[in-house]
Each structure stands twice: as structure tokens, then as C-alpha cells.
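Below is how a single chain appears once it has passed through the pipeline. First comes the sequence as given, then the structure the pipeline wrote out for it. We keep one example in the README because the format questions we get most often are answered faster by looking than by reading.
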Amino acid sequence: MPEFFMGANFMRVTGRVRLRDNRPISDEEFRRAVGICSAIRRLVDSRADYIAEKRLDPEIALPGNNWDPNADQPFQNRYRHIVEGNYDVLNRLRLYAQFSSFDLVTQSIVTRGREVPKIPDDFDERFEHRFPGPDHWIERYRMITRFVPVDIRARFPKVLGEIGWEMEGHPVNHDVYAYQERVNLMYEAGLIDELRRRIRARGVVNILEIGGGYGGLAHALTGLLHGAVNYTICDLPESLLSSAIYLGVTHPKLRHVLYEGNDPSSLATSEQWMGFRYIPNAFFDDFCELDEGVDLAINTLSFPEMAQAQVRYYGDRLKRLIGDGGALFEQNEDGRWMGMLDCKSILAESFPCKRRISPKTIPVVSKGEADVWSNQPLDTILASRTLPFEGLPVRMQLSLWRLSCLMTTPSLGLIWLRQMLQRQLSPGLFAMIKRLWNRLGGRMRA
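Resulting structure:
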């Protein structure tokens, strides 16, 4: 039996990670962050005029759904709070940059409401009193890291207000779990090994993420690939505010370019250029005109929030950018039950090949289903045809382990049941059952 099945890599919680455990950002880091705030404010203020001047489709270029300034949602108010450039806010960015619907301050799922969290001077003491022990996300993190190699575990630093529980010297919380889940899925699909192979051959890989949140997945992948990335994030400028600050602080040795739309040639990079480019969504065609090859494109949980025209727009361009040698990894759910999109049916219009990733190291995926889309069969894109955990004995042992997790952890069993119902029922019927369940006080924790 392989050593990892004996529990050699089963991690332990060794303490808390509090605000006071974070290193404060330096004066220079603060000045750079304030500069990013100013640039983003200019981009947002000039966006409508730019769209009109270039005759862009407002349905594609303007924020909508969850980012609609008039909607009852938490994102816009938090953006306005961050963009003011206050040191205490920027130094605790992670407590304000809320993209996963999980609020680190209240340790709860937040989907509505415009309030911005208040962080009192005695926050650590209040937080410890309110949450004396690890929540279920910590146990789920232990589960999904149990069988992956050590060099597949993403490491997050104690900076910018990252709080949670310490494991192997690094903080773990809901968001860390979510990004590790996506790393696991990419690893199981063979994508991480393929990126590493291309780095050995070429020195760098090109990654494009549509919707980068606060930069958590970009940070995780950059660390696993030892910084050998040309990583481009396309997003609303309101979102780029957080990712540009976060990644600028956590990866100071790499280059960082925030594109303001004035000179497309400034986006061009050399073959060995390593770092991050932040591109507002209204300027995405400027990036596409560079005709750079993309090894891996990514979208997680945001395509369903877009309009159909936006998903078709990205599908069309991503098809050309990945060419015959790249792939699109996306993890999304059918959002029709909550008035959003089934983005996968739209992506199928652009990509002829799809492979579903059936997780082996994850008892139950928190949200959505993961697929790899490509223009050629994935087997022809990956240099190695041997994927992790493909042997029959290993797969059987992992299947039994996942079944045991579902049976012994009621919350995971409920999530599995919810996802099974969502796949089997019509969106309207599932929405009705979900509302009834929530009214009965059974709101699911994922």
C-alpha cells in the first residue's frame, strides 16, 4: 500500500492565525497599493465614456448581476471601502475583499447585504471567544490534502489580514480550502504536471484567468510553479483592485502590470517574462490581439453570474487563445435555479472537447462541477498519459475512503444530496426545495 494511505501526510492543527500574527505591510507596499487604488478609480470613472467611444457592447463590458451597483449584494460597497486607500483597510485586505460568498469576519456565507465589516481593536479576542475551535472547513481541508503530494499543497502567507488555523506553519480557512480544492482537481486532471513539464522545456507557462477574485488561485498556482508564470487576470476593475494589491504584496519579485487601455503594446512580454498582468474586462480584446498562446485558461464560479453574451464572448476568444495545445479549466454550477446561467451549455458552442473531472481526493466538491475544455482531445495535449490515482487498487481505496467520509460526516452527506438533487431535478423544482430547506433552518454549509 502506498505510504500516503498510511496517513503519513495527515496534517494537524497547531494553533490559531490571528490578525496580530500577520506582518504589517511596509510603507513601500502601502504606497504601491495606494497607487493601484488611484489607477482603478480612474478606470471605473472613465469606463462608461470608453465604452461609448469604442462602441463596445454594454452588456459585455459593464458590470451586472452580482456586480450591479444597484443590486443588493456586498461586493460594490466593499470595493468602495477598499479603494479609499486607508492603511488599516489595505493592511487587512482579506477581511474586506469578499469574493467567495464567505465572510472571514463572521465565518458565514454571505450572499446579500451592503454592510462592510467593522474591525475593532480587540478583534482577535472577540473572534476567539466567538469561534473557539476550528470549523468544518478545516476538517475538509485535512481530507482533501491527505492523499496529494506535499508539493501540491498551496501555501498562503500571514499577511493582509489572513486569519484562520495554522497547519504546517500556514493559515487555513474556507478560502484556502476552496483554492486547494481547485488545485486538487487540476492535479488529478494532469494539468499541474503538464504545466511543470512545459516549464522545464520552455522556462515559463502562460496562464489566463477570467475572474481572479482577490488573487487566491493565482497565488496558489504561482507558488506551485515556483514563479515561472506569465499570469494574466481579466476582470472587472473593481475586482482587479484586490488581486493587484494582494499579488503585489505576496509576489514582490515578479513583475506587475495594470493595463489602463492607453497603449496595447505595453502588454507585450518577452519569452521569459514572469509576473502578472491585470486587464480590465473592457480591454480584453487588446490582450487577444497580441495573439499569445495560452497554456491554461481558468474560470471558477463566475461564468454563471455573467450574461449569456459575456460567456459567449469569452468562449469565442478563449477558443482562439488556447489553440490546439492549451486547455480551459472551469469549475461552475448550473445557476438556473437561482436565476443565473448554465454556462456549460454555452461553452459547448465554442469547444468541441470536454472532459469531466471526477474527483478522487475530494469527498465532495463544494460547488459546481469541474470540466476541462479544449480544441483537441485532452489526451493529445498532455505529454504524459499517466494521470495521478489511475491504478485500479488506488482508485478503489479512494472510493471507499470518500464513501466513509460521506457516511461519517453528516454535513458532507447533505452537500452530496443537494448536488445529486440539483443534477436530477429541474432548476425550478430544485429552487423550491432549496428555499423550503432553508426556511426549515437547514441551510447547507457550502
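The two ends are 33 Å apart (CA to CA).

See the next section for the split statistics.
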